[in-house]
Amino acid sequence: MNYKEILEKYNQTHLLAYIEKANDVQRKKLINQIENIDFEQLNRLYQKSKNAEPISSSKIEHLHYVDESKLNIREMAELASVGEEVMKKGEYAVVTMAGGQGTRLGHAGPKGTFLLNLPEPLKPKYLFEIICDNLKEINKEHQTPINWYIMTSTENNQPTIDFFEKHNYFDYPKDHVKFFIQGNLPLLSEEGKLLVDQNYEIKFAADGNGSIYKAMLRDGILEDMKSKGIKWIFIGSVDNALINMTDRKLLGLTITENNQIGSKSVGKSNPHEPVGVFCKRDGKPGVIEYSEISKEMAESTDENGELLFGESNIMAHLYSIEALEKLSQIELPYHSAHKKANYMKENGEMFVATEPNAYKYEAFIFDGFGFFDNMSVLRVKREENFAPIKNKEGNDSPETAIKLYTHYHLGK
Question: What's the CATH number of domain 72-262+314-360+384-410, 3.40.50.2000, 3.40.50.300, 3.90.550.10, 3.30.360.10?
Answer without folding.
Answer: 3.90.550.10
